[in-house]
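ok so I'm stuck.
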Amino acid sequence: MTRTPSEAPAGIVHLGLGAFFRAHGAIFVAEAMEASGGDWGIIGVSLQSTGTRDKLAPQGWAYTALELGPQGETPQVVSVLRDVLVAPENPQAVLDAMAAPEVRIVSLTVTEKGYCHEPSTGRLNEHHPDIRHDLDNPLPKSAPGFLVRALQARREARLPPFTVLCCDNLPENGRVVRGVVLDLARLIDPALADWIAANGAFPSTMVDRIVPATTPADLDRLEALTGARDEAPVMHEPFRQWVIEDDFCAGRPDLGAVGVQLVADVTPFEHMKLRMLNGTHSSLAYLGYLAGHETIADTARDPVFAAFVRRLWQDEIIPALAPPPGEDLGAYAEALAARYENPAIRHRTWQIAMDGSQKLPQRILGTIAEGRAAGREVAGLTLAVAAWMRYASGTDEKGAPIEVKDPLAPRLAALWRDDPAETVAGFLALSEVFPPALREDQGFAAELTAALDGLVRRGAREMAAAI
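replied:
not stuck anymore, here's the structure
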């Protein structure tokens, strides 16, 4: 597949050009321009590898988004990208793109760990090696470093700041990214931090679409379907949702025209999604992986885990939530169950299980802490945390090794002991993962120990069935 690159200027730079953004935000932006016009083309930035750029360049930056529905597959060509830069190759080119006058939004999907922050506090981790580098060098490595140095360049050029639009699964993601950026800017130049605080915008968002990893077999199947070879397609489910706090400092595409929910407060929507979708996604990933299921669909179609996840929603998660305006949480749960069971979506449990130390605080631990404070039963979510610990040991129920992808992987593996109580004590001491309310809760420690002991002796499926 080859397309002629568009000459229209780019109004957006996106950091972290992975499959999710190309299957979600980029499509919304393309459709908004088609509906209402505007120069909102996107310059993508790969912060680590050249793979995405190298695959997209021969195609004129166009790619296919393939919708995987229960009844069939629907391809869509997306031509909103104008260029793809690789930050390690030429960080100055990335800064130049972000500092260009026509760029009015910088969006990000760099995963939770990409913000170089402490998940338990939301503040900048000043000791992170990339942040230490970015403090000493004008050409940054980290996403916060690129944001701050680009905003510094705009201030020096007497240009207004761009809106920073986080599209990652972080609670209050706009507030978190604003705090990280201001923390880093203040260390570089306090006057810069004041300028950003007074003039910039960091709207919070909630994003939702299941985007499984693309496989070589997907490439071949898509070629047979369309008659054209695409080396960089993305796969996605039919469902999509994007809720954005309508707070932009330099304009935006007409996203409301294509179904984006522009609201005054994203918080109830993000709590609903983080806890009901992401929380159960992670729970199913760890327990399903331990039980031998390769995908979320395999796990969700297992009657034991299907009942388990409904029990999580009904008894442990929904009671801790305030419904967003216009949302029925029971109906949302049933829609999630149908999405999980979609046989066309092969979302690997191993993929969802990545970076658990970064994901669990907002996806699961907050619900547990609130539930225990309110006197509610949270045995199912406690079992999910125990399953994460079992998974992070690096060995599955049959003694086979697990390739654990996590920033804390070596530390997590070293915490494993034959005595479940000792293992739990070691994990609960991780202040960057567990909030004080749970670290100091002896009752939670006892229940987590019992859950972990049960997982070791009885296995994930039997323990889920008991719940």
